[in-house]
């Protein structure tokens, strides 16, 4: 992080935003009480947007590609640490998926470019006891997914969006994309992927948000 990234005025403003979102969780805001079939493209309570909102904790860390690293460790046979060149030298995939944010906006057809989670799993080989994955980010944010969800074919460690480098505000240089879950599981400014036997709820999960976050079950809050 550089100096201008330290939580300052914006950080203080976002404290309020975080408190508001915590209250939403407590009050069960936006819940329709209706589950939907996965064949429905738009999950219950969501509305479509064409623009792409930015959500963060008040800090958008500056991580130039020459200092960016991704560490993959924990309950794996082959831990690894990639710098930018090594990451970009891995087999690349393109995957189009929809975004569903818990604040009720959805955005269809986002084309992500990067390394697939399935490829990463084949490289690092989770140990038999590994059941959970914790994503750590450069802004201090964390979020958790099950190993089963992480292993879905559309999960991408993404550096590109619509054929362009992922912008800093949206988590560049590298973020995770987990399309089957609310977007808070898709960690921006990805720094570390930790495999674990036990679960470890992340930033929003300990603040009243659902541990899994399946939009079709309306898993907004815990
Ligand atoms: N590192 C990090 N990742 C994060 C967040 C964050 O604050 N920090 N916010 C999450 C939330 S709540 C959402 S909705 C999405 C927002 O991504 P976007 O700004 O690209 O729309 O990022 C998720 N990933
Ligand atoms: Mo969110």
Note the main attributes of this structure.
single chain; 222 residues; alpha+beta; Sulfite Oxidase, Chain A, domain 2; 6-stranded mixed sheet; 5-stranded mixed sheet; 4 helices; 11 strands; 16% helix; disordered N terminus; binds ligand MTE; binds molybdenum atom; OxRdtase_Mopterin-bd_sf; Sulfite oxidase-like oxidoreductase; OxRdtase_Mopterin-bd_dom
Largest sheet: 6 strands, mixed
Q: How would you spell out the order of helices and strands?
A: HEEEHEEHEEHEEEE
Q: Classify the fold: give the CATH topology.
A: Sulfite Oxidase, Chain A, domain 2
CATH superfamily: Oxidoreductase, molybdopterin-binding domain
Number of separate domains = 1
What is the terminal-to-terminal distance?
A: 32 Å
**Number of strand elements:** 11
Secondary-structure arrangement, i.e. CATH architecture: Alpha-Beta Complex
Compute the number of helices: 4
Radius of gyration: 17 Å
Q: What integer is the average pLDDT?
A: 94
Strand residue percentage:
25-35%
Low-confidence stretches: 1-7
Anisotropy-based shape: globular
CATH class: Alpha Beta
Pfam family, one: Oxidored_molyb
Domain Oxidoreductase molybdopterin-binding: 62-204
InterPro entries: OxRdtase_Mopterin-bd_dom, OxRdtase_Mopterin-bd_sf
Protein name: Sulfite oxidase-like oxidoreductase
């Amino acid at each position: 992080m550089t100096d201008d990234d330290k939580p300052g005025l914006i950080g203080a403003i976002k404290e309020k935003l975080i408190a508001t979102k915590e209250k939403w969780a407590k009050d069960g805001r936006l819940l329709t009480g209706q589950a939907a079939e996965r064949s429905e493209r738009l999950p219950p309570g969501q509305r479509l947007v064409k623009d792409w909102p930015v959500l963060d904790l008040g800090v958008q860390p500056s991580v130039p590609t020459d200092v960016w690293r991704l560490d993959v460790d924990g309950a794996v046979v082959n831990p690894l640490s990639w710098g930018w060149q090594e990451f970009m030298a891995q087999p690349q995939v393109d995957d189009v998926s929809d975004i569903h944010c818990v604040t009720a906006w959805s955005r269809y057809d986002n084309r992500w470019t990067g390394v697939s989670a399935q490829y990463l799993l084949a490289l690092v080989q989770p140990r038999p006891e590994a059941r959970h994955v914790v994503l750590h980010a450069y802004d201090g944010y964390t979020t958790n997914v099950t190993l089963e969800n992480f292993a879905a074919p559309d999960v991408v460690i993404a550096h590109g969006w619509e054929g362009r480098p992922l912008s800093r505000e949206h988590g560049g240089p590298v973020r995770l994309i987990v399309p089957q879950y609310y977007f808070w599981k898709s960690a921006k400014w990805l720094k570390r992927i930790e495999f674990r036997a036990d679960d470890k709820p992340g930033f929003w999960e300990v603040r009243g948000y659902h541990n899994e976050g399946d939009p079709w079950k309306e898993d907004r809050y815990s």
